[in-house]
Amino acid sequence: MHLDFLSLVNYKSFASAEFELDEKINCFVGNNGVGKTNVLDAIYHLAFAKSYFNPITVQNIKHDEDFFVINGNFNKNDHEEKVVVSAKRGHKRVVKRNGKAYEKLSEHIGLIPLVIISPADRDLIIEGSDTRRRFMDSVISLDNQNYLNQLVTYNKLIQQRNALLKYFQANRTFDRDGLEVYDEQLIVLATFIHKTRVDFLESFTPIFKKYYAYISQSEEDVNIYYKSDLNEIAAKEVFEKALQKDMQLQYSSAGTHKDDLYFLLNGHAVKKYGSQGQQKSFLTALKLAQFEFIKSQSGTVPILLLDDIFDKLDENRVSQIINMVNDEQFGQLFISDTHPERTEQVVKEIHQSYKIFKL
Ligand SMILES: Nc1ncnc2c1ncn2[C@@H]1O[C@H](COP(=O)(O)OP(=O)(O)OP(=O)(O)O)[C@@H](O)[C@H]1O
């Protein structure tokens, strides 16, 4: 799977740009703010119909312009896939595949397997638990539509249960049967979600550890601890035990919607005790494990976007990552960097075809 050609019109900082791309390695180099990340984001946009960095579509339209268009010609299993993503102020965004607009954007997701590794991934470490749940859920959902459906249902039921708790409080009333209608369904769903997440992490964590060990070439011990109210007690008890508190708070304070992942380095929180380079290595290993899952699920080698990968990592770690992506199991690569000489030196060592775009 690779992208042969990319064109942008009014996308973020670009009025108009075209790139004839290399099948293997493409580097975008230039000073801060020249638009390197914007190019990678445009490619991300073609795969996911949204920006990785700015989810508000209109804010991706170049200032003072009315629309943007991103055009990409992909080659997937020797077939051309032409993808166009466009947005106009005041209108819905449109995604076309080979000239035909999708009715539902979700139908497009999966056509272009792609993973991005970027400094913005730090959100996974520093933000709230929902960011980490979303990451875990997106990887599980790749080949488990049933999980995604159950998750959506569970979240809707939690919202309805919260509304009921608010209603009780506002009307100084309580209806045990009314609440049980929700709890009975939530217990079944939470049990399923918890079990699926446990099973997933059992296979995901060793892959993540393998990548971390390779990048760091060290004895640093990393782990992912799955924190859930359901780890120790059954879902039924979880909801029962939390009821008094839920009534006071007027929302559901326990369940799988409160699950979290603890990222550990030598037994301590990577957020508090990891150096910037260790955090970046941790995130890179997480994303490479995601890459491996997407690859096995889709049967296609995903495109890999490495945004600012050299920042904060020492030379050894950078060369470990580059050696790794040189391996046959990786496909087309996009790299952004502020140092043209450094980039050229690193990619030359790979002995693969490459193009460097100076922005
Ligand atoms: N909607 C927009 N319209 C015009 N310019 C925009 C828009 N959104 C972002 N930009 C501009 O794009 C530039 C940022 O580009 P980008 O993040 O790609 O830079 P970069 O080359 O990756 O820089 P760095 O080396 O600092 O990471 C900024 O100057 C920003 O103002």
From TrEMBL:
Gene Ontology cellular component annotations, sorted alphabetically: cytoplasm
One Pfam family hit: SMC_N
Residues noted as binding ATP in the record, renumbered to the chain: G30, N31, N32, G33, V34, G35, K36, T37
Principal subcellular localisation of the protein: cytoplasm
RecF/RecN/SMC N-terminal domain mapped to chain residues: 5-346
Gene3D superfamilies: P-loop containing nucleotide triphosphate hydrolases (3.40.50.300), RecF/RecN/SMC, N-terminal domain (1.20.1050.90)
Keyword vocabulary terms for this entry: ATP-binding, Cytoplasm, DNA damage, DNA repair, DNA replication, DNA-binding, Nucleotide-binding, SOS response
Gene Ontology BP annotations: DNA replication; DNA synthesis involved in DNA repair; double-strand break repair; SOS response
Cell location: Cytoplasm
Function: The RecF protein is involved in DNA metabolism; it is required for DNA replication and normal SOS inducibility. RecF binds preferentially to single-stranded, linear DNA. It also seems to bind ATP.
Family: Belongs to the RecF family.
Protein name per the record: DNA replication and repair protein RecF
